[in-house]
């Protein structure tokens, strides 16, 4: 009797497991980020893969162009209270290289730092935000999706 009960339980469990949806995952193919020597790189945008960091809970950078105004944004949040430094660069693509047009730096000892600046564009072209973060001694970079002006 016990053998029959175990067999029925096993069959019921197998049926339940077989009915569960089978998931699959994939890594989205993205343009390789351009990192400086000794600096890890993270590319932003939809479909990005969020890496795991030692000290940083979240980093991001963005660029919004409206008319001839570029709104440049970068933010870092630490997992704990520590010093956070954000270096934010507005870059324009010239040939195959990215050239920094203007940069800003800010820091905080509270575990988070956000920079948001407006810049008037005078040259047509492709722009991006390139941000370098130092979160409690962990150096990271983030590149926004490029925008055309």
Characterization of the model:
This protein is elongated. By secondary structure, it is mostly beta strands. Helix content is 12%, strand content 48%. The model is unreliable at 22-46 (pLDDT under 50). It is built from one helix and eight strands. A hairpin with a 2-residue loop joins strand 1 and strand 2. Strands 3, 4, 6, 7 and 8 form a five-stranded antiparallel β-sheet that branches. A three-stranded antiparallel β-sheet has the order 1-2-5, with no helix packed on it.
Order of helices and strands: HEEEEEEEE
The portion of residues assigned to helices is: 10-25%
Rounded to an integer in angstroms, the radius of gyration calculated over CA atoms is 23 Å
Average pLDDT taken over every residue = 80
For the biggest sheet, the summary is: 5 strands, antiparallel
In whole angstroms, the N-to-C terminal distance is 77 Å
Indicate the low-confidence ranges by residue numbers.
22-46
**Counted beta strands:** 8
Shape: elongated
Structural class: mainly beta
The DSSP helix count reads: 1
Beta percentage is over 45%
């Amino acid at each position: 009797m016990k053998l029959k009960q175990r067999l029925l339980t096993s069959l019921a469990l197998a049926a339940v497991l077989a009915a569960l949806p089978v998931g699959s995952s994939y890594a989205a193919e993205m343009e390789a980020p351009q990192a400086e020597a000794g600096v890890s790189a993270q590319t932003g945008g939809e479909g990005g893969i969020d890496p795991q960091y030692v000290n940083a809970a979240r980093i991001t950078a963005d660029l919004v162009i409206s008319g001839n105004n570029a709104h440049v944004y970068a933010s870092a949040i630490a997992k704990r209270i520590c010093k956070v430094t954000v270096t934010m660069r507005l870059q324009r693509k010239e040939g195959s290289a990215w050239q920094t047009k203007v940069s800003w730096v800010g820091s905080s000892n509270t575990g988070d730092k956000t920079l948001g600046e407006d810049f008037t564009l005078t040259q047509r072209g492709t722009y991006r935000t390139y941000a370098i973060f130092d979160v409690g001694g962990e150096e990271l970079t983030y590149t926004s999706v490029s925008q055309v002006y």
